[in-house]
Please model this.
Amino acid sequence: MGVILSGVTAALSAALEALMALLSVWAKGVAALGRLGLLAWRARGGEGKLLARLAPQLLAPQGQRAVFAVMRAFWPTLRLDRSFVKAYPNTATLLVTRRADMIEVLRRDADFEVVYEPRMREITGGANFFLGMQPGEAYERDTSAMRLAMRRGDVAEIVAPRAAAQAAEIVAACGGALDVPR
Model:
């Protein structure tokens, strides 16, 4: 009897923990929905269409966090039958907003393939490299070579500061502004 009771208690505890996690996600979603409503309310006056006035706030990091919090709570996986990413051929876009779902996607190589091979071949003039490869022997060989050539901390310690310094020099040499095509 004690073993059965212990099993039931463990199952109820796990169910309660899962329910509390879901309620927490919903509460964060409702709070984010409130923040989005406040943004819309503030943008209601002024010139032009509401969406045009609201877009800069929604595209800012704080707005994006709110949008994704709402999606995580109420629409965690969204399939759009439209191609938003033009870097590779595709017919739809899938937005996955929950961590557990994203981890599942990353683990399912056969279902969610690396799509950048054509683009990598275009960039290199024919040869593929690890950013465009499915996991396998060639991928393991190339990523191992990359790890030998560069330590994990090199990007933050060497590459990023050097790129920032060079970017600052380029902008300064251009009179403080760049003409970037849209």
